[in-house]
């Protein structure tokens, strides 16, 4: 997901809602305790952030992350289910008290980016494993936030006999947009009252209403032809690769006549076996992105027509069109966002020190960007709009499928460095450093306070469902992009991880020996290129 996809399209600033704790001394006292308890677990936040960074796993291959995170939660008394929704690396962890209502689900993504390996705390390209995957988005930090917040709230619920259920889950294969729609279809959220999602960013914020993200269909088009000797009898073959290349070229001609807001891109995963054999099979993998369900479906249908034309031109067969993943453009809950925004004002941005700013400015200079460093202030105004404002397309996140089934918000927490390209080695640099640790800790505080608001203020939940039923879904009803026959593409990235995991294992974090991952790697924080002195002019 592009980092900006979690942010909302700017709209009118909403007037500040009264803080739920303002007239509830009990809630105010619990919030004060929660802030202290989360702060006391700062070491646990750091360890989880660093551990997941060290695994550097890609979508559908998050095995070490699953083992580690579910182990923590089982020790804390959560009931864990693995292999959820037909996804082997997916899991849920549930804990209930009393009536079990309300049920609050807390999710965050866990997968990495191919070829994004880089040493943390080093402000230039310096791969840990050359060509290897890495956390070039920052998905290693969000689970630390949710787990610590949930442990703290669970302790308060037990002590004070507070009814409710906490349901934790990971966003599997978010970069393939191939996890959350399957979780929805399998019924993971059938009893959920509110979902608190979280995504890494470079600010601490939340917004409501129509998101700035694109809806998406991820589809693979597989062609089947007939092999032949490529030199001896090429006329006897029908090249599936020719069909793939003609589909790609046909799409480029069609692109001129599509809406400016659309985004579409592709890679060729199978182009044949060897040059002297006419390829009998070949495939091309597309992402189709548009504003909403009908426009995205229209784009997908156009792609299928282009594929059929390519098959006709090459006398091959369009064998299979597989939907590998999908996601709706999200719409977020105004009442929940209002409660969370008040908590963001309470917590505020982390206090960055000179070392944090030095790293941020170093990589910004390295990439030719203005070196203004890290932001230090939260946005005082809560932004949002019921409909998209000046929408021009952008990244995607499959949290949209959940947000159209249950009142949902996304908390952005500040562990990224501003002005970086996204999905890139540079975005991994901060993600096992004090920047990531401080940002996740701040997010954990906001998350814990917001969970307490939902548990102890029934009006927040009632208002959230009123907004969901009478505003958000008044005219728009959810229907999934995925078809009943579509299954999670759990084979994705298996070959990449099989290649790199033996090398990555050498770098797994050992918190029993080292205070931080930086210490284990022997990295001086921060390591940046020196600023070159500008030559003085002639007098």
Write the SSE topology:
Blueprint (H helix, E strand, L loop, with lengths): L12 E2 L10 H16 L1 H14 L7 H13 L3 E4 L8 E7 L5 E7 L32 H19 L3 E8 L8 H6 L8 E8 L5 E4 L4 E10 L15 H16 L7 E8 L10 E10 L2 H22 L2 E11 L3 E2 L1 H14 L6 H13 L15 E4 L13 H5 L4 E7 L19 H23 L1 H15 L21 H11 L12 H5 L18
Helix pairs in contact: 1-4, 1-11, 2-4, 2-11, 4-11, 6-7, 8-11, 8-12, 11-12
InterPro entries: Bact_exopeptidase_dim_dom, Peptidase_M20/M20A_hydrolases, Peptidase_M20_dimer
Pfam families: M20_dimer (PF07687)
GO molecular function, one term: dipeptidase activity
Could you explain the architecture of this structure?
This protein has 539 residues and is α/β, with parallel strands linked by helices. It has two domains: 47-211 and 329-474, Zn peptidases (Aminopeptidase), CATH 3.40.630.10; 215-327, 2-Layer Sandwich (Alpha-Beta Plaits), CATH 3.30.70.360. Helix content is 36%, strand content 17%. It has 14 helices and 14 strands. The strands form three sheets. It has a six-stranded mixed beta sheet with strand order 2-3-5-4-6-14. Strands 1-13-7-12 form a four-stranded mixed beta sheet. The protein has a four-stranded antiparallel beta sheet with strand order 9-10-8-11. α4 links the parallel β4 and β5 (164-171). α1 crosses α4 (142-160), α2 crosses α11 and α4 runs parallel beside α11 (434-456). It is globular and about 85 Å long. The N and C termini lie far apart (52 Å). Residues 2-12 have low confidence and may be disordered. Residues 1-22 have a biased composition (Low complexity). One of its GO terms (molecular function) is para-aminobenzoyl-glutamate hydrolase activity. Residues 215-291 form the Peptidase M20 dimerisation domain. This is Amidohydrolase. Keywords: Hydrolase.
């Amino acid at each position: 997901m592009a980092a900006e996809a979690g942010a909302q399209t700017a709209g009118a600033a909403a007037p500040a809602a009264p803080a739920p704790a303002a007239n509830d001394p009990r809630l105010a006292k619990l919030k004060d305790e929660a802030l202290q308890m989360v702060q006391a677990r700062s070491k646990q936040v750091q360890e989880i952030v660093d551990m997941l960074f060290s695994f550097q796993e890609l979508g559908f291959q998050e095995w070490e992350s699953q083992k580690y995170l579910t182990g923590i939660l089982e020790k804390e008394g959560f009931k864990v289910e693995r292999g959820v929704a037909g996804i082997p690396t997916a899991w849920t962890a549930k804990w209930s008290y009393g009536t079990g209502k309300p049920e609050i689900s807390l999710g965050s993504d866990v997968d990495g980016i191919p070829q994004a390996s880089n040493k943390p705390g080093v402000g230039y390209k310096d791969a840990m494993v050359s060509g290897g995957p890495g956390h070039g988005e920052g998905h290693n930090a969000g689970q630390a936030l949710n787990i610590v917040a949930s442990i703290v709230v669970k302790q308060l619920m037990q002590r004070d006999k507070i009814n409710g259920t906490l349901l934790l889950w990971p966003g599997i294969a978010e970069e393939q947009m191939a996890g959350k729609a399957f979780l929805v279809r399998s019924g993971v959220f059938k009893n959920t009252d509110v979902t608190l999602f979280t995504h890494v960013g470079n600010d601490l914020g939340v917004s409501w209403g129509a998101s700035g993200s694109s809806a998406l269909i991820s589809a693979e088009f597989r062609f089947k032809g007939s092999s032949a000797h490529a030199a001896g009898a090429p006329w006897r073959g029908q090249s599936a690769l020719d069909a793939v290349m003609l589909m790609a070229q046909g799409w480029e001609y069609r692109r001129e006549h599509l809406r400016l807001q659309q985004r579409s891109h592709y890679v060729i995963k199978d182009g044949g076996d060897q040059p002297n054999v006419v390829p009998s099979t070949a495939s091309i993998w597309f992402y189709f992105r548009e504003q909403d369900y009908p426009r995205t479906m229209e784009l997908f249908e156009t792609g299928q027509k282009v594929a059929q034309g390519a098959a006709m031109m090459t006398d091959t067969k369009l064998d299979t069109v597989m939907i590998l993943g999908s996601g709706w453009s999200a719409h977020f809950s105004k009442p929940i966002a209002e409660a969370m925004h008040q908590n963001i004002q309470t917590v505020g941005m982390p206090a960055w020190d000179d070392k944090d700013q030095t790293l941020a400015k170093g990589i910004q200079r390295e990439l030719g960007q203005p070196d203004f460093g890290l932001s230090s202030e939260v946005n005082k105004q809560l932004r949002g709009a019921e409909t998209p404002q000046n929408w021009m397309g952008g990244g995607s996140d499959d949290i949209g499928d959940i947000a159209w089934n249950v009142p949902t918000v996304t908390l952005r927490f500040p562990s990224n460095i501003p002005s970086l390209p996204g999905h890139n080695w540079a975005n991994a640099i901060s993600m096992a450093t004090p920047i990531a640790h401080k940002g996740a800790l701040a997010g954990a505080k906001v998350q814990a306070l917001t969970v307490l608001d939902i548990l102890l203020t029934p009006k927040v939940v009632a208002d959230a469902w009123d907004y969901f039923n009478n505003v958000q879904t008044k005219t728009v009803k959810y229907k999934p992009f995925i078809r009943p026959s579509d299954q999670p593409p759990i084979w994705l990235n298996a070959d990449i991880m099989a290649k790199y995991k033996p090398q990555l294992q050498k770098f797994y974090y050992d918190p029993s020996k080292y205070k931080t991952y930086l210490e284990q790697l022997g990295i001086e924080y921060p390591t940046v290129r020196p600023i070159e002195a500008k030559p003085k002019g002639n007098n």
